[in-house]
Design a protein that fits this description.
There is one protein chain. This protein has 408 residues and is α/β, with parallel strands linked by helices. The protein folds into two domains: 3-39 and 291-407, Lyase, Ornithine Decarboxylase, Chain A, domain 1 (Beta Barrel); 108-285, Alpha-Beta Barrel (TIM Barrel), CATH 3.20.20.10. 29% of the residues lie in helices and 24% in strands. It contains eleven helices and 22 strands. Strands 4, 16, 17, 18, 19, 20, 21 and 22 form an eight-stranded mixed sheet that branches. An eight-stranded parallel beta barrel has the order 5-6-7-8-9-12-14-15. Helix 4 (71-78) links the parallel strand 5 and strand 6. Helix 9 (210-227) packs parallel to helix 10. The mean pLDDT is 94. Its EC number is 4.1.1.20. Residues 44-290 form the Orn/DAP/Arg decarboxylase 2 N-terminal domain. It holds the Pfam family Orn_Arg_deC_N. The modification N6-(pyridoxal phosphate)lysine is found at residue 66.
Length: 408
């Protein structure tokens, strides 16, 4: 997607980008300083509404909090989704602070600490176990607390998903229990006082190919249909993962959600209804829910020319937005969409390079980007910043102040 498409999604007023209905300059004045992240609740609601309209009614929607754990965002989404997935004890407490029922919270991720597992058992949430060691720790916590832990087995599938930004299933993985070892695990622990509700399979993230995602969902349902025969009771929880991607660069094309929804309707009405009648299918999304609702706003501190290259030096950088610098998984660095937010209707000029304020050449936010002429105090806006922004960045590097976050 090109920057103008993102501008259209947020809207403009008097030549400025609008976020949450506010002109950018007014929002910046309200925040009080740059840089900052701003999340548009209207765009959040629009994304949830579209998913609800297209996905089968039987499918529950889970928010993967790791994508954006800002408390205001989590509070807002807790009222709009069916479940919240957490990846740490701190995220667990934040989820429970929303008032969501504990049974609607799941806890996934390798290397859960014993104290976190005890906390999860005490809270009554669903623990997605990823190894025999975790199972034994959960059993011990349940016996010590006098509680019956609720668990699902995270499965490392025997297939890989092509086209994903990060492959998280297939082959050797730190994630989940290898599919061929799940029957043995269930035989060993199926009668050990656990409430084993089902399975979670998450094969990959940031995928923009609807056909690949749909095929992965079909293979996941086939896999767990066989594994369900080894459960001590009926399969009730069927987490199909997510992996829905968003377009970050001009060469990316938005995901065809209609095609994915059509495939899910076939699965839900077909194999799941026939073979897993008591299962609740879950789609777990993080980036796809929040990624496109956010912007990162940073102010130009200096404009300089060095041997023919024009640099805009801004007060933000990779310490707040590691992904936009290309240092969060890009094999070949490509620019995220960015604009001069206080003059979005101006004509583009020659290419400029936008860099942050850190003492490293890695602090690059935009390389040879065609922008309207911009100078000191203009506001540079980077799009697609609602997910894996602040909390996925090295904020302590060089001791700069943390940016603000606002939900508007």
């Amino acid at each position: 997607m090109r920057p103008h498409e993102h501008v259209e999604a947020f809207g403009t007023v008097d030549g400025e980008l609008r976020v949450g209905g506010l002109p950018l300059s007014r929002l910046a004045a309200r925040v009080g300083s740059t840089p900052f992240f701003a999340y548009d609740r209207g765009l959040l609601d629009r994304r949830v509404d579209r998913l609800r309209a297209l996905l089968p009614d039987r499918v529950e929607l889970s928010y993967a909090m790791k994508a954006n754990p800002m408390p205001a965002v989590v509070q807002h989404l807790a009222a709009r989704v069916d479940r919240i997935d957490v990846a740490s004890g701190l995220e667990l407490r934040a989820a429970l602070d929303t008032g969501i029922r504990p049974g609607r919270v799941s806890f996934a991720g390798p290397g859960k600490a014993p104290a976190e597992l005890r906390q999860a058992v005490a809270a009554g949430i669903l623990i997605e176990v990823e190894s025999p060691t975790e199972v034994e720790r959960v059993i011990a916590a349940g016996e010590d607390l006098g509680l019956t832990p609720s668990v699902a087995v995270r499965v490392n599938p025997d297939f890989a998903v092509k086209g994903s930004g990060m492959r998280m299933g297939g082959g050797p993985q730190q994630f989940g229990v290898d599919a061929e070892l799940v029957p043995e695990l269930l035989a060993a622990y199926g009668s050990s006082g656990l409430d084993i509700q089902g399975f979670h399979v998450f094969a990959g993230s940031q995928n923009l190919d609807a056909a690949i995602i749909a095929e992965a969902q079909r293979r996941t349902v086939d896999l767990v249909s066989g594994l369900a025969e080894h459960l001590p009771g009926p399969l009730r929880y069927l987490n199909l993962g997510g992996g829905f991607g968003i377009p970050y660069t001009e060469r990316d094309r938005p995901l065809d959600l209609d095609a994915i929804a059509a495939g899910l309707h076939e699965l839900v009405d077909g194999v799941i209804a026939e073979r897993l009648p008591e299962a609740t299918p879950v789609i777990e999304l993080g980036r796809y829910l929040v990624g496109e609702c956010g912007v990162y706003v940073t102010r130009v501190l200096d404009r300089k020319v060095s041997r023919g290259t024009t640099y805009l030096v801004v007060d933000g950088g990779m310490h707040h937005q590691l992904a936009a610098s290309g240092n969060f998984g890009q094999a070949i660095r490509r620019n995220y969409p960015l604009v001069v937010g206080n003059r979005v209707d101006a004509e583009d000029g020659d290419g400029v390079t936008v860099v942050g304020c850190l003492c490293t050449p890695l602090d690059l936010l935009g390389d040879d980007v065609a922008l309207p002429p911009a100078g000191i105090d203009d506001l540079i806006v980077i799009f697609q910043q609602g997910a894996y922004g602040l909390t996925a960045s090295p904020t302590a590097f060089l001791g700069h102040a943390a940016p603000a976050e606002v939900l508007v």
